[in-house]
Amino acid sequence: MNSEKKRFTCLFISMALLLLICFIFSLGVGSADITVREIIKSLISPGDVQFGKIIISIRLPRIIAALILGGALSVSGYLLQIFFGNPIAGPYVLGISSGAKLFVAICMVVLVGQGVYISSLIMVVAAFVGSIIAMGIVMLLAGKVRNMSLLVVCGVMIGYICSAVTEFIITFANDSNIVNLHNWSLGSFSGISWEHVIISAIIVSVTLVLSFVMSKPIGAYQLGEAYARNMGVNIKYLRVVLILLSSILSATVTAFAGPISFVGIAVPHIMRGAMKTAKPLIMIPACFMGGAIITLLCDCIARTAFAPTEVSISAVTAVFLAPVVIYMLVVRRALSRG
Question: What's this protein's family per the entry (predicted)?
């Protein structure tokens, strides 16, 4: 085993251990602190332990959802950064998450107002439609605006417009359940059920497998379109696949947890720095694990820092990850000047 493979192995093992520690810590802390011994007993025989219901019905689905959806959001950002060839591209910045949020809100207002039950699949489909429309607008602008910085600004403006329309919809909704969507619209894992966990796990798993299968053409595309064509890669097909995969991942996150800021931008950058490579075979699992760890930690802070009041997870991720993005932009500008 060469030194590079040893480094990758050590880093993945370290992240796996850190993820396990964060998982156990998140299960134990909250409105009621639970010891590791009680956690183990609750997982083995939840009916016989005082905190069994809290662990199995409330904390465990929320924590697993944070792991799955945080990892999915990070991989979505990584795929978008490859597509646009820009390290600050991401579902939140480009307005894709906001487009998904808008369509989920519209779907809920229309269907709940008619007394129709909304399944998890309907929410994902609505979010996917919204994300694809937002992505389509960004792509149209990309044909007009060649400057990537201006394109990102346009994406931010699209996000603001979608968020503003969503706020209007939520504010003027009559149903009390719809009004409570305000917390979801800011980003939260509160109220995640086992049904949501199972649906999101299936969708994210299939999408990640497809992303992993596409690693070779994605790696060729990273080296330039001319190189990819010479390697036999169908560029148009690959671009469509990248759009669909990233949109499905970000739509799934938005459908169940609302828009979560900066994870999709900052985590791929952190993983590139840690792994010292841009190879998709390494970066896809690394981004997933990194996104899972960071999202789980931020969710833990969101629900415990000001308990019993819970803050939105986007507020926490912005505080910790926005400086990473700023640092990345400053360093990139300094390198380009140097």
Answer: Belongs to the binding-protein-dependent transport system permease family. FecCD subfamily.
Q: Is 223 inside any structural domain?
A: yes
Q: Which residue has the tokens 């945080």?
A: 70
Domain that holds residue 150: 61-337
pLDDT digits (tens, 9 = 90+) for 283-299: 999 999 999 999 999 99
HSE-up of residue 100 (Cα within 13 Å, Cβ side): 34
Q: Give the integer Cα–Cα distance in Å for 178 and 189.
A: 17
The CATH number of whichever domain residue 265 belongs to comes to: 1.10.3470.10
Domain annotation covers residue 141: yes
Tokens of 246: 């990233």
CB 87 within 8 A of CB 333: no
Least Cα distance to 185 among 202, 173, 197 occurs for 173
Q: Which residue has the tokens 């999709």?
A: 264
The neighbour count for residue 4, using CB atoms within 10 Å, is 12
CA atoms within 13 A on the CB side of 337: 6
Q: Is residue 235 part of a domain?
A: yes
Cβ neighbourhood burial of 3 (10 Å; 0-12, 13-18, 19+): exposed
Q: Fill in the DSSP letter of residue 85.
A: T
Query: How far is the C-alpha of 134 from the C-alpha of 123, rounded, in Å?
Result: 17
Could you tell me the CA-to-CA distances from 165 to 77, 101, 103, 128, 183 in Å, in that order?
Answer: 24, 10, 10, 18, 16
Which range (7-11, 82-86, 182-186, 228-232) has the least confidence?
Answer: 182-186
Between the CA atoms of 251, 253, 254 and 258, what dihedral angle is there, to the nearest 10 degrees? 180
Mean per-residue pLDDT over the chain, rounded:
83
23-80 tens-digit pLDDT: 988 888 877 777 777 777 777 776 656 666 778 888 899 999 999 999 999 999 999 8
How far from 194 is each of 8, 58, 201, CA to CA, in Å?
33, 9, 10
- Region 251-257: what's the mean pLDDT? 88
Residue 147 sits at the vertex; the CA angle it makes with 253 and 317, to the nearest 5 degrees, is 30
Nearest of 101, 55, 88, 16 to residue 292 by alpha carbon? 16
In contact, 37 and 228? CB cutoff 8 Å: no
Judge whether 298 lies within some domain. Answer: yes
